[in-house]
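Archive transcription. Copying these from loose printouts into the bound notebook so they stop getting lost. Printout 1 of 2:
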Amino acid sequence: MADGGHYYNEHDDRTAPQFRNRKGRGSHKDRSYDRSRRDRQRGSHSGGFGGPGPRSRLDDPDGDVTMSDNSQDSNSQHRFNPYGRPYRKGEGRFDRDRRQGKGGGGGRGGGRGFRGGDRGGGGKARSGWYKVTIPHGRKYDKKWLLTALENICTVQYTPVQYHVDHNRVHFYVDDSSAANALHKCSHKITDTDGYKVEVHINPSAPPSFLLLDLKPEHLEHLKQCMAKRFDGSQQALDLNNIRTDPDLVSQNIEVILNRKTNMEAVIKIIEENIPELAGLNMSNNRIHKLDELAELVTKVPHLKTLNLSHNELKSDRELDKVKGLKLVELWLNRNPLCDLFKDQASYISAVRQRFPRLLKLDGHDLPPPIGFDVETPTTIPPCKGSCFGSDEIKAHILRFLQQYYSIYDSGDRQPLLDAYHDGASLSLTTPYSTQNPSRSSLGEYHKDTRNLKRLKDSTVRFRLLKHTRLNVVAFLNELPKTQHDIASFTVDVNTYTNTLLSFTVSGVFKEVAVDGKSRDSTMAFSRVFITVPAGNSGLCIVNDQLFIRMATTEEIRRAFVAPAPTPSSSPVPTLTAPQQEMLTAFSLKSGMNLEWSQKCLQDNEWDFNRAAAIFTQLKTEGKVPDVAFIK
């Protein structure tokens, strides 16, 4: 059921159980409701409906009927207040069938959830529309979520009316093949916490805005009404409680600004006729979201005063959608969000964070803002690569990492004993989450995680800290076999003295199964090594902190682009004299060591010029790892 932009279905936990499970709805009540609904659609106003039926009195997507404010139908038991709380008793045949397990399309297979396609009519919505639900989707960025779905969905589609309802995200598609393909995307996307994204599909009535569009003749009346409400001397438009405007009511036109299409129609009229608008009053319109008002930032750039008082804005986060406006006066009083702040100072602070130039709030003068009037846009500088401090330290670290991970990714990690100090310690951490770890690809690491946000018991914390090099390497041997992408490594030196070197290395890796094949899931790691000098320019680990998480979509896209080098016992196998001469020349020209120079030449069939061109391109793109230059 659509109610003021909120969407409910039979599985919604906000649907009161006494309505869902209530018995005794006999056929007489349903026939009475259907008959009264047909009468209203034909224009009848029996029982005190004020005015003829064509005034947008169509069923809403879930079968509810919109009535005027002064309706007094004493014969009907099924009143519906378009701004009230949801009422489930008599939504209409579609919803009744759906609750009884008949689904949206009748016939066999109804009520069993989405099965895709049009097989036998079961699972196919009568309207041809399907509702896509992402549980816990609120925590995801809209652009990231839609892009991730589009990348793996086998059918192109257009998401319609994307919106957030509590913790869920919903949107609609009007194609059964797209709905079927999206259904198959469930549990195929991994978020940054390592959990799979669920995708639920259900047959649905058309989105509400498709049934609530204003007709062309209505738009003309609306335009004339807005013209009367416009004050040219002040460049101000007063849309206060526009739904009750006599000019619109006399024409049976209902303009409700908490409907997406109605608000879009108003903004379009403003854009086309008064783009220089300086003041806009939208009070008393029961507005609960500001998604459509975000367009004012570009379409009405000179807007200085905005009145949103006496509406239903519940969170100050809604203001983020219009914070691009350069407002000097704003009215928000008599909105639920005003009750969320402990005092007036925190309220003013929260609003001024979005509108730093604001001088008046709810009719009260504010102290002048302190800041710099800088119009130059600020961009985040690009992420830099590794930071070593000096070339000498760089050579030590890169040599150490190449040796360490060649052993770590081999079948036997026992030789790593030589890399650790006798009293070394190691800890493993994974992201904190309240969800079931077994559902995550990080499940094998969760049992050993020493996340201090998750563990409060000091005894357990101590037990999960691995002490002495024997215990450290024994623990590393129990972890899944891996393949690291050395080209993805980024190194940052934290501290270095003559007796200590601390650095962080980050990158991505895949787990390797017993048969040698890597698994689908790509993971990311960040590892802090604290080392001391050992032997001849070597390093010995005294502390090792390993953090593992699921890789982001961008990290997965860039991972393992270049094939991993295969270490050989001899860096220069037997070559012909011309090949040896070409290898030496290429190594000198590129700066790479002999092993990587040979690999580049072999990959390009010993074509010197082509290999040089490929090397130059990859180096420009930053895809040649630092280890290629260690000689």
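Printout 2 of 2:
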Amino acid sequence: MRTIGALGAIDPHRFKDAISDTTDTAVTNAKATSSTGGTNANAGSIVNKGGEGTHRTGNPHVRKADGKLKKKKKQQRPQQNVMTEKQMEPLVGGIPTDSYGTTFSNDGYYTQLSVNALLRILENTNDTTFHREAVEALNHMFAPVQNACAPFLDRVVPAILLAMDVAPAGGSEFYISALVRLVSIARQLVRPFLEPIFKLFSAESLGSERQQSTSIGLIEALAEALSGDFGPHIATVLPFLMAIIDRDSSELHQPTLRALPALQILSPSLEGYLFLVMPRLIGLLDIAITPIAVVEETLRCIASIVGAVNCGSFSSRIVLTLVRLLQCSPPLELQTAAIDVLCTMMEQLQDEFVLFMPTIKLVMSKRGIDEHARYERYSRLLFMGRLVPKEPPRAQSRIQGDAAQAAAAGPALGHSGDGLAKQEVGVMQLRRAWTSKPQKSKDGWMRWLHAFTYELLEQSPSPALRACSSLANKHSPLSKELFNAAFVSCWTVLPGQYQQEIIASLQNVASNMDVPADILQTILGLAGFMERDEKQIPIDLKRLGDYAYRCHALAKELHYKEAEWTLEKNYDTIEKLIELNQSLDLHDSAIGMLEYVRKEQPDVQESVIWYQRLQQWDKALEIFQRQEAERGPSFQTTRGQIRCLFEMSDWETLVPIFERIWSGNDQKLQLASASIGMSMAWAMGDIDRMEFYLSALPNKSRDKSFCKALLA
């Protein structure tokens, strides 16, 4: 069966390509060896190895220098075994399919399992109630270690955007904040997934002031993560920020105050967009209609832009606007900020700035600004030819400031210096949770299991599982999905004494005959999970088989009965194994079990029930006939022969037996065989015989009512 499964797992297209590659490689190597010798062949293999990345792109053409296309020669690559080539396997049933024979429960597995479970919640539009907590759990999970999110970003980013789309009105702000955290965690790793994120910045729909502020925070996070390199996406971000400034009609201009620091961060990328930004900033310098705080922030923004890019085309407009601002006798802080902008322009423009200096000197003298230390020093250096432009300081976003404060405060509680969360398992809390009392209803037992699962997640040493505990307490499917992993993560660190206690508690729960099947199935699932993880649960196989029988888990019962047979060779289990295999339509396995017993124990006494369950009626008939010959006719042997002959449709042998029965006085046997006689007569098309046997059936028999309907 494993061989058939392996053959069925081969992709025919990949197999064909592999065979073709093998043939082409062999032919090419043979030609190279015959014509140029082994040295050239080796060189060819080195070339092929270097071109492997090109071959994998699947593009069959390359472009010549003149722009025309030419057919690309098929690159050779090392031969791959299509039977053993290992691909990235998903989790099937919560278990990695590529880890047979090894233990797989580790932090990486717990993270993968938790992320997949949370993403299924986010991708389910019917679970919108839990989307927020699922996103919080993801960010909390990725926060300790930046690289932990790398394998999942291709699914996490679209899932958060999908949750944002189906969120109720006003719910977008939370998901944008979540993206801010995610970008701050992932940093450069988020670069391949920027396209859908930048679609959020639409100048046509700005949203509320709070949403605008959150969106600007996302821009700052992206700028920090990408080191200001927005590339082509700067054309999307700038119109969004300019729209916020243009449409800001609030009294305190809070949206504008929020957008200006973002422009400072983007200043190194504004080289080709000054025509879009600078006129609006210059317009904000009118002290008569613009609040003082906005004018001051605008001056800082202009200074940042002037220091980062060449603003020569706007130099006259900027200087004249600043001169008018100084003429209005602004407050001292605005006066200082305006002159600082002039100093920055002096650094950048050098000799070109000399044209503006008489006007600036006149205004400063008229308004009593006798001297400004930085301006005077820069003026002297400029005339001496020693004024050197300085590298402008990089603007710091709010996110950077918060991160710096957090770093200065030291590592967060529960985290070590390397970013990995550390937590000891709270044995006493777990002990209170696993201790059970007899419950009076199914709901009581399910509440106990739910509380136990929550405590396992809460006390788990895995940061990923702990991050899911709050949501799992409200979302039962998630709690059920993570139970096995949470149990094993705690089990592996518990001392032996407590391991025995927790197993005794589970056995005590399962021993209650009124415990619901869901709990029995949970225990069986845990046993299978631990067995698959090379950690055998210390519960007797007979107990596990009994649990499976009580909750009608036939496949699990068969598994434990087979294990019990392997360990004990108890022939009392043969009949049960045959029955289970037949119930699961595993007829070949049932027959194979019987043949194995015959081979291993030739002297074992064969049971007619084995053959009846296997539907081997001819062999069952032989046993009945042999028993009749040895012991004489009896009710059991005669009835058994009738059943076997009926199943074999041997009417010629069966009819004389019925005539002999019905000519005698054994009413018990006549009553027991009447139903089979009815079926035999129906199969033979003998209506008279059907009416004869029909009269012998009890009046309350369902068979009699059915047969009457047939004859009506």
